[in-house]
Amino acid sequence: MVRSFRFFRGLRMLVKACQCCLPSLCWSMVLLAVFMCMGALILGNLLQDFIKDETQSLEDRIWVWTHYGTAYRATYTLYEVTFAGNWPTNARPVLERVSHAFVIFYLLYITIIVFAVIRVISAIFLKDTLDEAHNDAQHLVLDRIRKKAEYVERLEGVFKTLDVTGRGTLSEQVLNHMLANPKVKAYFQTLEVDVQEGTALFHLLDNGDGEVTLDEFIDGIMRCKGPARAIDTVALQSDVKQLDNKVTKLIRQMKDSKLIRSKSQAEGSKNRANLKVFRIDPQSEVKFAPAANNS
């Protein structure tokens, strides 16, 4: 049902992107869980002496125990440090109340896990999302249809601008005059059409009646769309087509003037020649030699 509404196309792509990210999400959480558990065990064990030291302030000991007193508490605190970004509120009290030597642990953990590993995981998620967006066949088809419609609309605007007479057709003189303007050539280049001269473009667009209609203009420009090599290929195809038409016309004229014979006529003449070889004069006598007696 969602696919039937273009309004929900972005939502469908978002859901598919989330689905493709699930494997990466699971493995990334496993990796981060390993790092967080290791860090929690190390930090919790190092702070146990401070928690048990009765000479320290009771308030400081309670704060440290609340955040790092057990494996669960220490793991949850590092989870906040990793994902919530509030590591100063969880790290600075330890440095100020316990020891500044813990700065080594926090520097390593924040630099490696919070900065490096998290960004690598984010990059993987982004890559999976972009791959899913590029591989969505339906989205690609709709996107190409939309771009083609926009391109055709721009071509219609160009044709109306070139058609100064308002007859709905373009002549070779008008096209040459318009393409002599550098701004018009530059605009054609924005349409991904490299045009050097109007005469060549006109012969590519014209179907032989000496004028270019809107449909011929759009169809020809769509075929010429691309770099210079693309329009050269189209020009070559047009030349080959014209040459084929001329050769066909020449052969037809030669057949009409009986300078050459068709294939069926040539085969008929050949068959008649073969029959003449086996023709026998009825007045001639044919004598057969007697068969030899084998006995």
User: What is the strand content?
Assistant: under 5%
CATH topology of the largest domain: Helix Hairpins
Inertia-based shape = rod-shaped
Rg computed from alpha carbons, rounded to a whole number of angstroms: 43 Å
Instruction: State the strand order across the main sheet.
Output: 1-2
How many structural domains does the protein architecture include?
Answer: 2
> What percentage of residues falls in helices of 4 or more residues?
over 70%
The DSSP helix count reads 12
Element order: H for helix, E for strand? HHHHHHEHHHEHHH
Quick summary:
The chain has 12 helices and 2 strands; from the N terminus they run H-H-H-H-H-H-E-H-H-H-E-H-H-H. The chain has helices spanning 9-52, 58-68, 71-84, 87-97, 103-135, 137-162, 172-179, 182-190, 198-205, 214-224, 228-256, 263-277; strands at residues 169-170, 212-213.
